[in-house]
Amino acid sequence: MALVVQKYGGSSLANSERIRLVAQRIAKTKDSGNQLVVVVSAMGDTTDELIKLASQVAKQPGEREMDVLLSTGELISSTLLAMSLESLGYKAISLSGAQAGIKTDSTHNKARIISVSVKRILEEIEKNNIVIVAGFQGINQQLDTTTLGRGGSDTTAVALSASLKADMCQIFTDVEGVYAADPRIVPGAAKLDEIGYDEMLEMANSGAKVMHPRAVELGEMYNIPILVASSFSNVSGTIIREEIAMEVRNKVRGIAHDANVARITVLGVPNRPGIASAILAPLAEANVSVDTIVQNISVGNTTDFTFTVDRSALAKAKSIVDPLVETLGARECATDSTLAKVSIVGTGMQNSPGYAAMMFRTLSEQGINIQLISTSEIRITCIIAERDVNIAVRALYESFEAEIAKAARP
Amino acid sequence: MALVVQKYGGSSLANSERIRLVAQRIAKTKDSGNQLVVVVSAMGDTTDELIKLASQVAKQPGEREMDVLLSTGELISSTLLAMSLESLGYKAISLSGAQAGIKTDSTHNKARIISVSVKRILEEIEKNNIVIVAGFQGINQQLDTTTLGRGGSDTTAVALSASLKADMCQIFTDVEGVYAADPRIVPGAAKLDEIGYDEMLEMANSGAKVMHPRAVELGEMYNIPILVASSFSNVSGTIIREEIAMEVRNKVRGIAHDANVARITVLGVPNRPGIASAILAPLAEANVSVDTIVQNISVGNTTDFTFTVDRSALAKAKSIVDPLVETLGARECATDSTLAKVSIVGTGMQNSPGYAAMMFRTLSEQGINIQLISTSEIRITCIIAERDVNIAVRALYESFEAEIAKAARP
After folding, report:
1. Cβ <8 Å between B69 and A61
2. Contacts of B54 in chain A (CB under 8 A)
3. Are residues A283 and A165 part of one domain?
4. A69, A71, A84, A119: which to substitute to probe chain B, counting the most B Cβ within 10 Å?
5. B9 in any annotated domain
6. What is the structure's pLDDT at A63?
7. What pTM was computed for the model?
8. Domain membership of residue A284 as a residue range
9. Which of residues B117, B139, B174 is at a domain's end?
10. Less Cβ crowding at N or C end of chain A, within 10 Å?
């Protein structure tokens, strides 16, 4: 008998009808002779509605209170799903994050899981219950409710899979898996049958929204195979797992993009040690996430320091960097909020410099200007104008299609 | 510094605007130098909406799951109220029933409080926090959420008052206090400044819906003075407390009525011991609440046995009693679902038989037929036709007005 952890996202549970469909899907897995722990997100728009309510009673709702408020969304969906299963004749029980043993630190709104005590879950499985766990939430040492922040329910599912030593962790969402490129831009893009953890991380960090990087990291740390699939169809999804047979595999996994990029460049900074830290430390302190960082080679005594942020963070970032221009003796601070990034991702690329050249040539053939380049072991990213991003993704997919196709169907 | 427990009902918290008004009212109490514990019900229609959701996913939702589902309503209102207070510059913290130390048995949907551990509440008061407690809910020994059933939030407030040895328990609702008769029927009915626990119990059990009898009982048991007042006005409410100076007080407190009465009479029952038990035991087993019970003096060898139930329970009660007619050798089972009860309530009446006579005369003068009479130490109840109830209440109020007026304003 296999122990399976499943996670259903908010769109899969958007209304009572969809909850009943999910219950039927769970029932099928149970009928196949599996033990089941199911993690749920809040129904559809519940979280947005709760946030709206909070904003109506307080300009800056306290983080502790916000956590209790938001956690009710998952309590509601977990009980409804348990009821729905019971009405189909299955034994089911809902557990809050606290009851499921999810213990976190006290960083409200984005708590980290410290430990998982699965005693209660195991007792309920022993009683042949299908265990429905409210995702996204935990409890701190003071027994206060915490929430895990973005990607929280995915993280709950992977953490429980690790602690329960589950045979499989299945993330059901509204897409059919991980694609080699966004199918809305590249209609024929291949769905990947499998992808490595690091590749998935690079894809996610480069804009593929299928799964939150944090949950992928946790999966990698505990080596949990994660299936990403649609709750609306029976198409087999994508399995995220440790790379196997790396040497014989193809090099490129997919094309990722993110059309929500803004850039800040500090021009003419006197070239001395400590520049990067002088600029980035105040940003980190203000909790501004910086993405790509590039320091151009200096000409003469000055250098240009560039980084990108989410577009929504640009105003805040600029207000922090502006005063530094004078402090650092730089010339000026320039920004551009109309950018995008496009990346090719694949474990196999690391020792094959030909891929970078092919990427740059493809973009150049389309007349697309590359503003910044950043590379990792398994990724090459170009920052380009937002207006060029769809053309870029399609052209890159075409250039690398032969590689991708073999990777998608080994 | 006084320790005050306040409770706000669902209509007082129906939307974000009302929540902000309640926050301002709490702030005022705090500014007067009080320590504050506030118990909240769910916002307006939240509970009904959750019940509807449950009915959409399951025909008979499980009681344990239902409790977790319903408990989210009070979690939501408690956090929103805490946020609203924080935004006014007050320190506030919301606590779930479990965090507030409300420990119950495992009778889901109508759990009884076993004990209250106020350690956490006292810690938060010590930190100068206004403590907002989610009413209506507790936790059982398995650490599962339970709900307290009807009148649950009132019960939470009174139980906390007792455990915290609060100086005052204030129940804020949508009426201005306890009236000597329903002001919708008797427009000039006096609001009582105070009323005894037992009188309030008789009023509540006789149809006055201001406060659930269960919370009043608890108040009496621990001798907690309870103020019932409106959250929408500054009119002083009614204090429920131990009768004082009973001998010098006036006799009648008020007129209560309930227009939702049905009657079952088993006619021609052979008059032998055990009849009442033979009829009532199966009803109790089926969880049918029986209200007034009257066994008429027997004529010859048979007697007539009559009891009343809520109209909604009539069909179920009849289905249980019908088969007993043959078993008991009775003649038939007759029912009437168009009845009401009207009562006069007052601690002082007990040794003054004149009040009963005055009540019967008043009804008779209005041409109202009395079907059943039932009395307690401090209450006289007549069952009459529903169509007569408004006339009866008005006439009785007029007959006893001099008594009531003195009682209302001592």
Report:
1. no
2. 79-80, 83
3. no
4. A69
5. yes
6. 93
7. 0.80
8. 254-408
9. B174
10. N
B64, B83, B120 ranked by CB distance to A58: nearest: B83
Q: Could you say which of B53, B64, B76 has the minimum Cβ distance to residue A72?
A: B76
Across the strands, what pairs with A239? A194, A227
* Buried b / exposed e along B169-202 (16+ C-beta atoms within 10 A): bbbbbebbbbbbbbeebbeebbbbebbbbbbbbb
* pLDDT above 60 for B213: yes
Q: Is the pLDDT confidence value at A147 over 60?
A: yes
Helix axes A63-87, A16-31, angle to 10 degrees: 60
Question: In this structure, is residue B73 part of a structural domain?
Answer: yes
- Which residue in A has a C-alpha nearest to residue B81's C-alpha? A57
B58–A86 C-beta distance less than 8 A:
yes
To the nearest whole Å, the CA of A29 is away from the closest chain B CA by 19
DSSP helix/strand/coil, B20: helix
pLDDT of residue A352: 67
Residue of B nearest to A20 (CA): B57
Given an 8 Å threshold on Cβ–Cβ distance, is A64 in contact with B93?
yes
pLDDT of residue B300: 72
CB-nearest to B68 from A20, A64, A75 is: A75
Per-residue pLDDT for A400 more than 50? Answer: yes
pLDDT tens-place string over residues A27-64 = 999 999 999 999 999 999 899 999 999 999 999 899 99
Query: How confident is the model over B371-375, as a mean pLDDT?
Result: 84
Q: How far apart are CA A76 and CA A79, in angstroms?
A: 5
For residues B106 and B142, the answer to whether their CB atoms sit within 8 Å is yes
Residues of B at the A interface, defined by Cβ within 8 angstroms: 16-17, 19-20, 23, 50, 53-54, 56-62, 64-66, 68-69, 71-72, 75-76, 78-84, 86-87, 93-94, 96, 99, 120, 143-145
Hunting for tokens 């953890």 — which residue is that?
A: A197
Q: How confident is the model at residue A407 (pLDDT cuts 50, 70, 90)?
A: low
The last residue of one of the domains, among A156, A174, A192, is A174
- Count of other CB atoms within 10 angstroms of residue A364: 11
CB atoms under 10 Å from CB of A164, counted, come to: 21
| B144 contacts A80? CB cut-off 8 A | no
A70: left (phi over 0), alpha (psi -120 to 50) or beta: alpha
- Which are the contacts of B299, defined by CB distance < 8 A and separation ≥ 6? none
ipTM: 0.76
Domain co-membership, B156 together with B300:
no
Same domain, A80 and A168: yes
CB A82 within 8 A of CB B53: no
Inter-residue contact A388 to A340 (CB < 8 Å): yes
CA proximity to A372, closest of A384, A358, A387, A355: A384
* A16 vs B57, B78, B81: nearest CB: B57
- What pLDDT is attached to residue B219? 93
Q: Which of A46-55, B1-10, B185-194, B278-287 has the lowest mean pLDDT?
A: B278-287
CB B86 within 8 A of CB A65: yes
pLDDT at position B92 is: 97
Q: A182-223, pLDDT tens digit by residue?
A: 888 999 888 888 898 988 988 887 777 788 888 998 999 999
Nearest to B190 by CA among B174, B206, B205, B178: B178
Residues A162 and A293 in one domain: no
Contact B16 A99 (CB under 8 A): no
The structure tokens listed for B81 are 């109220």
Query: How far is Cα of residue A1 from the mean position of the Cα atoms in its chain?
Result: 31
Number of domains, chain A: 2
Contacts of A64 (CB under 8 A, 6+ apart): A108, A144, B93
Q: Are residues B301 and B395 in the same domain?
A: yes
Mean pLDDT lowest among B118-122, B300-304, B370-374: B300-304
Q: How many CB pairs under 8 A join A and B?
A: 115
